[in-house]
Amino acid sequence: MPAPGLRLRGDFDHAGVPLFRDLDLTVAAGGWTCLLGPSGVGKSTVLRLLAGLETGGSFTGEIGADDGGPIAGRIAFMAQTDLLAPWLDVRGNVTLGARLRGETPDAARAEELIARVGLADHVHKWPASLSGGMRQRVALARVLMEDRPIVLLDEPFGALDARTRAEMQELAFETLTGRTVLLVTHDPAEAVRLGHHLFILSENGLSECAGLENEPVRAVDAPETIEMQVRLFRSLRGGVA
Length: 241
What we know:
alpha/beta; Rossmann fold; six-stranded mixed sheet; three-stranded antiparallel sheet
């Protein structure tokens, strides 16, 4: 399935209180769009709206794909919490989507992804016996297993140590080549490393950060990468990019 671009435009209220107004977010087809901003401004709500999930609030506006097709059925979503089924082992959780749809999971692909997230020796373990970082890697393997053209990621690497985080970023970027990815992150370095497009959502609305150079995955020590991280951090602090 080709990867379409996405657009979300409108207002959202929670318990009668506005969360955002006149939001107009375009997620470019076939690349990584990163969404940053302080807690509580609606970043995760944006993901849930695109995914068609319950938000606990009221949205007025438009959500759609630029090819005119439905978004439902073409999305893989990874939430902040790993949401692993406690009664399934690592393999069972990675293949859960296919099983819920009544499909036969691709066993070879599942084993490959489990190995690539570094859990080949833990394939039969239950979630309760895994560390937080291991659980997050299971959740990442599960979303990659879905092989969807649209992928929504909510802080997918937040529980990982620095080395593992870099490795999982590279794995996700490689595996999701050509997909339309929207990544919510609080980490400017992560956004600059992975993003084709960067947006900041704040209490004042949505703004795009221009000036990205080279193609991701960018070298963390490249001067232009460091410069963009500094600019992005200043923007997040309310300064001028």
